[in-house]
Amino acid sequence: MLQPSRTPRVDIVVAVTLLALAGLVWWESRRIAPPFFDPLGSAAFPRAAAILISALATVVLIRAAMGLRLGVRPPTIPYRPRPDLAIGVVLLAVLYVGAMDLKVLGFPWATMIFVFLSGAALGGFDRRIMAYSAAIAVALGGGCTYLLRDVFYIDLPF
Amino acid sequence: MTLDLLDALVFVLTPVPLFWLLLGVTAGIFVGAIPGLSGGMLIVLVMPLTFYMDSTFALVLMIGIYVGSVSGGLISATLLRMPGTPSSIMTTFDGYPMARDGKPGRALGLGIGSSLVGGLIAGIFLVVLSPPLSRWATTFGPWEYFALVVMALVLIAAISQGSMIKGLLAGILGVAVAMPGLNESDGQLRLTLGFHALDNGFDLLPVLLGVFVMSQIIKDALEIEKRAIPLTLGSAPVWMRLADLRRHGMNMLRSSVIGTWIGILPGVGASISSMVAYGVARSVSKHPEEFGTGSEEGIVASETANNANVGGALIPLVTMGIPGSPMDAFLLGALILHNIQPGPLLFQTNKALVWAMIAAYLIGNVAMFLIMTLSVRWVGRLINVHRAYLLPAIFFFCVIGAFALSNRMFDVWVVIGFGVVGFALERANIPLGPFVIGFVLSRILEGQLRSALMSSGGSLDELFTRPIALTFLVVSLAMLAYPLIDPWRRRLRNHAQVKQRRSP
To answer: How many domains does chain B have?
Structure first.
């Protein structure tokens, strides 16, 4: 007997994404040449995974629909969630890695800017936290880079 | 066996491995005590730094982190009412009320002492059970090994927290994510979508860094306002008396056995062990009403079981190459990254390494007891450190770790991508443990089935005619069927009871 989901909205998004992923895996596995010496071939496992993911994602989708119909709400939490900060941190991480990948900024400078900005944002732009974040940024971007690159000879991004 | 163990104990007590072990235990206690950070995160973060280390020292360091982090969680559970690690959640129910009632030292002392006892009892099981189990595992052929991996994946999904459907989904998703790239058996590229960066598939380390570390960074940023004021420890003594050993001896023994046994089951983390041990302790207690209000028995049961779980979970890892928990999947990953083939032959081919891991676990528990007893006041003051200082630095180390693997930015992008994926899965209550274990076991699963089919000329008959493989398969099917049969069985029983009451 299926139980309604307690997180129906997120479940629907995840289940639909997984169904699309399963479709992609199935479509890609059709391009794999048939086996010529072993009985299994390279396509069998991806196809099996695509079928199982679709079946299970469909069950998740049905449970989510049941949860939506019953008006199930996720449990209340005793603090204020900050999706803006979560998205901000991901965006800063993308900019940090992107700047190095596109060779716009070198590793030390990109690190210093990323560590300072994300620390300041996560600390609510509190002056004390910003001061400490600046110190950590210099320590990681400058000191740690020197230590890893010139002392331990570890390759670092651009 | 005794000589091998003694050799390993002496080896781990020499300066260099002892240094790595103490460093690992100390760092593990620290990250375990801070809510939002975990030992798993630290193991994955240090993995790239161990590329240049001797593989035995690397494993000793990681086992130190493992033991330390599981124990460190009790500090924040007791002083902050927030478990530093999920395995300490049951400790919050009694540790915090006891600390609030003016006995924080007593609560921590009991927790630390119980952790040591649980760890050492599980260590005895680890020493005694591992050699015969590994000998038995060497008799496995590809059919047995394939069925064992299937059973492990089903078990992980069935017993992992949340719904079984989502557990299974996570496991299969992990298996699917490991598929892109060159198929080693026939040299064909698959699921690369035309991207050459995917020709070698997703490397283990960036996926682990993404799913376990980056997703946690995103989650911590979302929950940045979730803070609590810690209770102060003051000058209260932090130790367990010998009389406590007598008083809680039975509870410790029982919880250790529960923790070890649950640890042996693949994929079942320490949190389930502590929940089960807590529930059993409550049901057999003379004062069950005290549970949840500051019961000593509750703290002892929870902390003994979660540390015993670590030892139990190491058993399938060292004997069969099957991870007993997500943390063990990281250790398995570390073995692979150090070019050590995990599996039933590990005990034969790398005997010294396996015994060093076991010795590190035993000495790590003693080190954990000493370090925690001496440093708990200091760690207690650091547990509420603002995440704004930690999260950017953690991502910095993710970037270094992912890049250092193959000197390519693609791996760093994989960290971010899988961070978002891991975060989304967690929001939908899809457990990450089965995902990681599925990812790690995927190649073994496919490789063993391929070998088995080639040896049988493409026939599946042997899967059903070989007793061990068939047993694993029947257990898997039973685990899958249980959630379907159980409600039906309960309904039948309720129906019968109602009928009995109605009849004169």
So the answer is: 1
Could you list the residue range(s) of the whole structural domain that residue B178 is in?
A: 2-502
pLDDT in tens, B426-473: 888 888 888 888 898 898 889 889 999 988 888 889 889 999 999 999
Residues A12 and A61 in one domain: yes
**Cβ-defined contact of A60 to B165 (cutoff 8 Å):** yes
* Mean pLDDT computed over B31-51: 85
Which residues have C-beta within 8 Å of that of residue A43, sequence separation ≥ 6? A29, A30, A32, A34, B190
pLDDT in tens, B381-402: 777 788 899 999 999 989 988 9
Q: Which residues contact B460 (CB under 8 A, 6 or more apart)?
A: B453
Verify whether the Cβ–Cβ distance A85 to B224 is below 8 Å.
yes
Selecting from B176, B424, B453 the residue whose C-beta is nearest the C-beta of A39 gives B453
> Between chains, do B186 and A60 touch, taking CB under 8 Å as contact?
no
Residue at token pair 């998004």: A13
CB contact under 8 A, B172 and A56: yes
pLDDT > 60? residue B161: no
For residues A16 and A61, is the Cβ–Cβ distance under 8 A?
yes
A39 and B425: CB-CB below 8 Å?
no
> What pLDDT score was predicted for residue B267?
61
Count of H-run helices and E-run strands, chain A: 6, 0
Which residue, chain included where needed, has tokens 């001797």? B54
A73: closest CA of chain B, how far (Å): 13
Whether ipTM tops 0.90, in short, is yes
If contacts are CB pairs under 8 Å, which of residues 147-186 in chain B contact chain A?
163, 165-166, 168-169, 172-173, 175-176, 179, 183, 185-186
Cα–Cα distance for residue pair A130/A116, rounded to 1 Å: 7
State the average pLDDT over residues B475-499. Answer: 79
Residues A101 and A135 in one domain: yes
What is the number of domains present in chain A? 2
Contacts of B176 in chain A (CB under 8 A): 21, 25, 46, 49-50, 53
Strands (E) located in B269-381: none
Mean pLDDT for B163-192 is 88
Q: Is residue A104 part of a domain?
A: yes
Residue-number span of the structural domain to which A88 is assigned: 83-151
